[in-house]
DNA sequence: CTTGATTATTATCATATATAACAATATCAC
DNA sequence: GTGATATTGTTATATATGATAATAATCAAG
């Protein structure tokens, strides 16, 4: 069975990403959290008071798709919102959220270690550089401040 | 704005994959075809008479999700099905499908060139090896014949 | 011939992502 | 200050992707 797709780096990139995300989702499942939510926890944890719009830029997701995620995380008492001005909310972790962040970080680091472990050592530095070259500063968006 | 996610290869892998697939989808849009369909065309083109179940294995997608895709591609006169036995169908490209495959290959190669072009030359070989290490022979599935 | 595995289909559900319209507010030019 | 414009967040909707379960038909192994 001949498979020309296997010669294509772009195809390999997609397959690698899907395989990786499946494994990561599996590791997060016991925590009852999804990987997008885990990213949000991490960003709020390292940027207390961050606004939703900052998250949408950093994660490159749509405002409209973030709203229900934030609402649900607030409902689960993982994050709290405080008014910054008439338009925007500042996001912070609750105590529950901080505990969840600890667990999320552990799972994330375990997952990253697993991932790196699958790559021959000699390839690792170039892999990182290559991956970042493929998405960093996407399209026309000049980095905001 | 501090972003710990940027230090994570796994996160970079996902972002790279998403950015890449968005660009590829854009390149395929004029052809009126989606990237999963493009992969199917390529595999049928290089394996005339291939069965749906072979496709599901090679693409690692669910039988149930392939069925409507194949039906739609048959409806668009891109592929034709002939009975192999009482259970399975053999898939082949129609003339229209072969022309589409030509266009798809051109777009695919252009996309792959664009992708590789974004990666510093010194990193390319390691990137390919690394990516394949991350998905090749996923989990428990021993390669079928 | 019976049992069990394979192939394909149908239906359903969850998730991820994209777009458009809207309300409220902030910012900027004047 | 006032008016035009941009930002922020929300709601509703559409599409794409992916997973699961149940069913029917058929093949393969003993």
What is the structure about, briefly put?
Two copies of one chain form a homodimer. With 145 residues, chain A is mostly helical.
Show the helix and strand layout.
Two copies of one chain form a homodimer.
Chain A (H helix, E strand, L loop, with lengths): L8 H20 L6 H12 L3 E2 H8 L3 H13 L3 E5 L5 E5 L1 H23 L6 H12 L10
Antiparallel strand pairs in A: 1-3, 2-3
Helix pairs in contact in A: 1-5, 2-5, 3-4
The structure holds a DNA duplex (30 and 30 nucleotides).
CATH architecture group name of chain A: Orthogonal Bundle
Strand content of chain A: 5-15%
Q: Residue share in helices of chain A?
A: 55-70%
**Class by helix and strand content of chain A?**
mainly alpha
Oligomer: homodimer
Q: What is the CATH superfamily of chain A? A: Winged helix-like DNA-binding domain superfamily/Winged helix DNA-binding domain
Question: What features would you describe in this structure?
Answer:
The structure is a homodimer of 145-residue chains. With 145 residues, chain A is mainly alpha-helical. The first copy, chain A, has a single domain, classed as Winged helix-like DNA-binding domain superfamily/Winged helix DNA-binding domain (Arc Repressor Mutant, subunit A, Orthogonal Bundle). Chain A is built from six helices and three strands. In chain A, helix 1 crosses helix 5. The longest helix of chain A is centred in the C-terminal third of the chain and has 23 residues. Chain A is elongated. Chains A and B meet through helix 1, helix 2, helix 5 and helix 6 of A and helix 1, helix 2, helix 5 and helix 6 of B. The structure holds a DNA duplex (30 and 30 nucleotides).
